[in-house]
Amino acid sequence: MKCGILGLTVLALLFGGVGQAKAEFTITFSQDGNNVEAVGTGTLNLTATDYAGTNYSGTSAEVNPTRAVVILESGPQAYDVQDTLGSGPSSFGTGPNVVASMGTGLPVGIVGSTEDLLVPHGYTSGDYLSSSATWDNTTISALGLMPGTYTWTWGNVSAGTADSFEVIVPSPATAVPEPSALTLLGIGAVSLVGYGWRRRRKSA
Fold this sequence. Notes:
There is one protein chain. By secondary structure, the protein is of the alpha+beta class. It has two helices and 13 strands. The strands form two sheets. It has a seven-stranded antiparallel sheet with strand order 3-6-10-9-5-4-7, with no helix packed on it. Strands 8-11-2-1-13-12 form a six-stranded mixed sheet, with no helix packed on it. The chain is globular, with a radius of gyration of 25 Å.
């Protein structure tokens, strides 16, 4: 009986991911020196989404954590809005809308508060996308981004229409002493040891 339960447990662990939508498009934020970067790569399945219109005036790469909005692109371009009719967080922070200093690639993004996808005008499901955006002279905290992994899902697994969109915000990096500071600390420690040894030798 125990062997049977163990076997079922192993099978569940091995195949538990089957039938769940994995993130096909992911945007990852990172702190790069004085700037914040966001890189998005992957594909999108629009089969289970509803076309909600085209914006010909275009937009700009931007982030609005309060409304769970992040858009990556090289500059104002026409994009299609697709209603996912799915589920996901309506925010990923408390910051206001901030336009990026620069961006690359075709327009792609998420408006989590309304569960809409933004894709290049005329985008075909399954086409690979790669876009980015950079916010100069700021930090992840200053943009109001809350660390975590945020996922929006839609579609039906058994019908082959399931898909997801993921935004990853890292935790602030732990401060690490500069190598030069560590070197100075080491020299200071050796000097103290040497000084103590000389004093003991004179006393003797």
